[in-house]
């Protein structure tokens, strides 16, 4: 990663809002596709922007149903919170990698890794290294959940320029 691939935000919430405003809504003709349940902030941002929001139920193991999420996407934004909030479940790394590789480049993918510090499963890994080969991938993180920095409201994302 180069430093010009990192964008700082007022917590990761600002990053989520920017992505919703940029890739969803009536002007962009972009749909937001999310797992259900998941972190609500981006849903609220996209709805306020006039976007169609498609909620795809989580699987029986509480992971994201990535094939169904991909099927619901229309040149908009697919939001994958991994580990997921509020379920604390993970979507296995092989499924996430395969999903990112197969998603058409005109569909943006936002992977929210706000809780990645707490994921200790061998079946979980960050997707930041995949940004290099996938121009439609954005990965957001925050310092608000760890390092005693909750009051600082510092988030960031990694993406291609």
Could you characterize what this model shows?
By secondary structure, this protein is α/β, with parallel strands linked by helices. It has a domain at 11-78 and 85-104 and 115-121: Aspartate Aminotransferase, domain 2 (3-Layer(aba) Sandwich). It has 4 helices and 7 strands, in the order βαβαβαβαβββ. The protein has helices at residues 11-23, 41-48, 66-72, 93-102; strands at 6-10, 32-36, 53-57, 77-81, 108-112, 137-142, 154-159. The chain has a 7-stranded mixed sheet with strand order 1-7-6-5-4-2-3, sandwiched between helices. α1 packs parallel to α2 (41-48). The longest helix is centred in the N-terminal third of the chain and has 13 residues, at 11-23. The protein is globular and about 40 Å long. The mean pLDDT is 93.
Helix-strand layout with pairing:
Layout: E1 6-10, H1 11-23, E2 32-36, H2 41-48, E3 53-57, H3 66-72, E4 77-81, H4 93-102, E5 108-112, E6 137-142, E7 154-159
Parallel strand pairs: 2-3, 2-4, 4-5, 5-6
Antiparallel strand pairs: 1-7, 6-7
Helix pairs in contact: 1-2
| C-alpha-based Rg, rounded | 14 Å
**What is the CATH architecture assignment of the domain at 11-78 and 85-104 and 115-121?**
3-Layer(aba) Sandwich
CATH class of the domain at 11-78 and 85-104 and 115-121: Alpha Beta
What's the total count of β strands? 7
Measured as a percent range, the helix fraction is 10-25%
Number of helices: 4
Order of helices and strands: EHEHEHEHEEE
CATH fold description of the domain at 11-78 and 85-104 and 115-121: Aspartate Aminotransferase, domain 2
Instruction: List unreliable stretches of 5+ residues.
Output: none
Assembly state of the chains shown: single chain
Spatially, the strands of the biggest sheet line up as 1-7-6-5-4-2-3
Report the biggest beta sheet as strand number plus sense, adding barrel if it closes: 7 strands, mixed
